[in-house]
Amino acid sequence: MDDTILVEKSFEIIKGNKKEFINKFYYNLFDMAPEVKQLFKNTDEVKQGEKLYNALLLLVENIKDSELLEDVLSSLGKDHVSYGAQLAHYPVVGECLIITFKSILKEKWNQETEKAWLNTYNTVIKLMTKNI
Ligand code: HEM
After folding, report:
1. How remote is the CA of residue 63 from the centroid of ligand 1, in Å?
2. Which residue owns the Cα nearest ligand 1 atom 31?
3. pLDDT tens per residue across span 62-92
4. In CA terms, which of 13, 86, 126, 131 is 20 to 30 Å from 80?
């Protein structure tokens, strides 16, 4: 199946479990990479969770619109420099997304879907880190 379809289909299930996704994502992230917790010390976790979710939603809904994604993600990437995010943090955030998706999708998650998200996330990293 096409990566786009796999990403869209799997995210449909995340949409129905938004709160669980947000809570688990940050719980997993701080467990996997405790050193990034300090970057979020002044952050309202609920609002931040919403922002992350909305960014993923925008990504999934515009996955074929490379021009829009390039604009939005390169600008988001620049903002992340001021948040203290480093290149080395991107892989662990991707791994955390996958682990969190997997724990929510359970038997609906498979290797093909994982590959589709890995490909998508690699594109996201490229666009977010392009001009920094
Ligand atoms: C798929 C990759 C990522 C996406 C989609 C994403 C999304 C976002 C969004 C939408 C915001 C809010 C921006 C705003 O308020 O205008 C944000 C803030 C932030 N992100 Fe990310 N992010 C990603 C990767 C990372 C990585 C790798 C780090 C490094 C640990 C990181 C750390 C932060 C921090 C510290 C903030 C600021 C929180 C605050 O406002 O206090 N993000 N992110």
Report:
1. 19
2. 85
3. 999 999 999 999 999 999 999 999 999 999 9
4. 13
Ligand 1 centroid to Cα of residue 64, in Å, is: 22
Determine the average pLDDT of the residues in 95-104. 98
The CATH number of residue 29's host domain is: 1.10.490.10
**Cβ proximity of 113 and 60 under 8 Å:** no
Contacts of 104 (CB under 8 A, 6+ apart): 13, 14, 17, 20, 21, 24
* Domain of residue 121, residue span: 3-128
Give the total number of structural domains in the chain. 1
Q: Ligand 1: which atom is nearest the Cα of residue 56?
A: 5
Amino acid at the residue 105: L
Determine if ligand 1 sits within 6 Å of the CB of residue 82.
no
